[in-house]
Each structure stands twice: as C-alpha cells, then as structure tokens.
Known about the structure:
This protein is of the alpha/beta class. 42% of the residues lie in helices and 15% in strands.
Amino acid sequence: MKRRKRVKYEEWEPIYHEICDYFCFNPEDDEKAARILANLTSADSSDSLFNLINGKPVTVCGNAPQLSSECHLATGIIISADAATGVLLSHNITPDVIVTDLDGIEDYVLTINHSGSILVIHAHGDNISRLYTWVPKFSGPIICTTQGRPFANIHNFGGFTDGDRAVFLAEEMGASSINILGFDCNDPDVTPMKKGKLIWAQKLLKNLGYEI
Length: 212
C-alpha cells in the first residue's frame, strides 16, 4: 500500500495567500468558518477515507456540462465535486466520496451520506450560513476541511475549488490512478468570479501534473 502523502501547510500557505489576494478574500473569515465547523461536529472519517482510496483507481467528477455524457467512463472509487453528485445519481451512480462546500448539494446527499458515502465538508468565509444549516443534518461519515491552517479535526489536503480539491484529496490518500471527468476550466459561459476560480483550478491541477 502507498503511504499517505502529507500536504505541508507551510508549502500550501503562500499559494493560499496568493489566492486570497487575487479574490480579495479575508483569511480571518476562512478561519472563523473553520472554527464554526469544528464546533458543529467532531467527526473525522479520514482513516476510513484513506482505507477506501489508498492503492485503488479513482475517478474524480466535476460539474462541467459534459459530465452527463462522460458518466459511463467513471470507474473505481468515485469522488464527486459538489453538484456533480446530482448528475451522477441521475445516471444511477452513487459516489463513494462527495467533496463540497455545501453550495450545490440537495437533500439527496443526506440519504447517501447516511448510507455510507463519505462527505468532505469544506469551510470558507462565504459558507458559514450553510454550515449551520446543513452540518447538523448529516448522520454518516464526515471529514472537515479548510483553505487555511488545519487544526483538531479540520484538515487541509490542498486545492481551492471543489473539483481540484477532490483531485488533491485523491492524491494525498494514495490513489493508484486518477481519472478526471466533467472538468472544463476554459468554459466561456461563466461569471467573472467563476472564471477566476477555474483559472486557479487549472493552475493548481497543472502543478499536480494534470492538464485540464
């Protein structure tokens, strides 16, 4: 079995602050959200996640429009990024892991999390209200993540958007291979904010060796 990689926050921190400067994000807001998440749940299923992924092929599914036509290519351990979960379910595919900041999920996630799908919940400065709304409802395996400095049960596996964070997570957990579906970092039909996020997702994935 591969040993689990460890993302060193000291190596991630300069990138994180560059992202914050790019978007005018306040790191203190991210820390506040992470503290709130830690107070909402003490759950930490990271060992179960490692056992699930380590040494196995993984497919990471983003929420670009082409995902619907690519679902048949999903094999191995399936990791969905946020709203990609709904697309997979519409094709009778239940993801093993859902990476989400709770922005694009619906009530169906409560059911599949209760049935065993691991939920990787991300806290950042803009989703505090969703943390309060959603986190107490989950009854299945949970992992908590932050963009900032990790602490207690709050992890930082690297990455920024739900999609690229899912790839970073699979890398850290020692996947034997990673197949990426439903990613389009050059989508012209997005808001300026979303375009900026896609630019960063593409940059971060390229640093990992993935051309998207």
